Known about the structure:
The protein has about 325 residues and is an alpha/beta fold. The protein has helices at about 10-20, 35-40, 55-75, 90-100, 140-150, 210-220, 225-235, 270-290, 315-335, and strands at about 1-5, 30, 40-45, 45-50, 80, 105-110, 120-125, 160-165, 175-180, 185-195, 240-245, 250-255, 295-300. The chain has nine helices and 13 strands. The strands form four sheets. A four-stranded parallel beta sheet has the order 2-1-4-5, sandwiched between helices. A four-stranded antiparallel beta sheet has the order 10-9-11-12. A three-stranded antiparallel beta sheet has the order 6-8-7, with helices on both faces.
Amino acid sequence: MITVLVHELNQTPMRRLISSAGHLLPLLRMETYQSVFRRLNFPAGTLVFTDFEYLNGMEMMAAADIAEAAKRADPDARILNHPATVLERFALLRRLRIRGINPVEVSRLEQDERPTRYPVFIRMEDGFWGPETKLLENPRQLEEAIAVLQGNAKPMKRRIAVSFEADRDSNGYYRKYGAFRIGDAIVSQHILRSVDWNVKSSASSTDPDFVREELAFVKDNPHAEDLLRACNTGHIQFGRVDYTLRDGALVIFEVNPNPTFPKFKGGAAAREERRGHIIAALKVAFEAIDSSGTGRIDFLPSAGSYQFIQSGRWIWPVRWLWRTRMARRRKMQSQ
């Protein structure tokens, strides 16, 4: 069984996968961190950790405790995206640039870091909201944009400047490629293109030439080796890489650890063959990370985190039960 841990505020992507393709995949289960924190146990089998941008530092420590409890119960347990080592957006992009793998430069604005490459845009380090500004062509425009954001009561905490490293293709479109990392497999998903630099959906996606190109991309999986190298740099074994190509080289935008999978029911008929290749490749990839496991495994949050993972929404019987469980776990650990 494969258990995917998600934040309670971001259950839709995994629900969508299970609903549309779960019958074709190995047993796939979704649990929220909040449920596991409350119950102080989790299902045995393969564990996939996601949604790190939703977790605070103490919750990340508790998530790492879950992973370590799984390893103690079974040293051969499959753990994808271990919270103790996985890199999130800012840290990943910075490390990729330092190692010469990716040209994208990121700067933390609250620390008075300023970019050396332009144009840039400003966005939150966390979440999925995307750019908050237009492309800023020089330091003056950057400072003006910062002043506007602050004037609109938006603090610089966890806001970053990101260099824009994409070019238009021969047809005048910006492109964004997407490919999943699942265990040791790369599964190419799509090519999106738009006249807008912030590519969110695809223009002319049913154009016959483009349909053939996208199908060849999915079947040939041409960037698998480079994508595995980038994900390994960030200790990421599960997610979707969003990237483009410039002069034949990859430009990585991010790796989303809780990605939205395609709709495998419905959709444009012209892209049906593509969807068939994707689901077949996903089936093989999920089967490769599946592992046997029965029952649930107890875990004890570390002393530095346990008091911070309680939820203010828990009613008093739940709080009493949680504290009883905690006391029992501590007693068992001390014996």
